[in-house]
Amino acid sequence: PARLYKKVYISHAYECDCHDPNLEAKSIRCAEVPKGPIQRSLAGPTTLAWLFHQKFELGLPTYRQEKEWSSYGLEVSRKTLSNWIIRASFDWLEPLYKLFLDKLRQQEVLHADETYYQILNRSDGKPATSEARIWLIRTIKDVSHPIVFYHADLTRAKSVILELLRSFEGWLHCDGYSAYKNLPNVTTVGCWAHARRKFKEVSTEHGKAETALQFCDQIFRLEREWMHLSPEERQAQRESKVRPIIESFYQFIEGIRTVKGKLQTAIGYAQNQRRALMEFLSNGQLEASNNLANNTVGGWSLINLMTMLLSVVLGVLIMLMQNSRSSGRQDRRIKAGGVIIAIASCLVFALTENMAQPMVIADRWTALMLVLAVMNVCVLVVEYVTSSRECA
User: Fold this and answer.
1) What is the mean pLDDT of residues 356-378?
2) Rounded CA gap, 34 and 300, in Å?
3) Helices 45-52/78-88 angle, 10° precision
4) How many CA atoms lie within 13 A of 203 on its CB side?
5) Alpha carbon of 85 to those of 54, 126, 313: distances in Å?
6) Residue 309's pLDDT is what?
């Protein structure tokens, strides 16, 4: 187990006590003591390191750490622990944060993406249901020192990415969001995974969408075969094999007439992004998709996804339990509660079926389902206790 100990530094102060008038008066001198990472705080470097490790690596909230510190013999409140995290982050981690951003701006190729999140107490006065953004910028995978940079902001405005990529010159992998367009000294690289997803959303019975998907699949199959090649070799292979596929793809979709609905949306996206989607052919370091950033920023939605799936399973299980145990008029309400949870679970799944988008809607529905689930469990317990007494 971890061991807690206290270092005590004693600093002595001295002054000259001689009374010789011929000697020049000396000022009082005090011995220096090591400075702590936080002024006037008992938290040392290892204490803060352990606090950050528990909080961010192990996901242990401060109210549980408060109990752990108490077991070590230190009575410290969760408020104090939170203040340590905030103060140490500003004093010691913010310079590193800025350094990472400066290093990113010096790269030749970057990936960027953003996702939704919510803030309970927003500084701009908007309600907690308003959407804020987590912006992600990261290096390509084949670098000696990879960097993944997150930036939280209240808005999705173009001014945010302009500031983050200030002084950056090179290629930027991104989706078709308009904020990435016309960035100074930046060449955008389109994402074939996004283009493919647009056609995937079209009904599978539509033969034209299926043909477009086959073109996209050919590109990704070749890219997987060449992933271990050097950038120069990869670029040469793309010119000879991938470019003809892309040109055939555009000839095919341009020949489609009288389309509407999702197919029209998919074709419009591919045509509007044509220059960006073909940019990866110009440099072997570039990727055919922005999946590297999408998969990284997707971790923010993973918790929502797991909670949603848990809610679905919980709702179905409770409904099955109630249908198997319930009988009589008084149990109809219990059955109805289970049905409500199951219906709400299906609604959440339908509303968040497109896993490419962060599940903001799931946050609200999941909270509702969890409340209903807890209420149903309480009713089940009461029912079980009541039936046991009647049997007795």
Assistant:
1) 51
2) 40
3) 100
4) 5
5) 11, 26, 36
6) 59
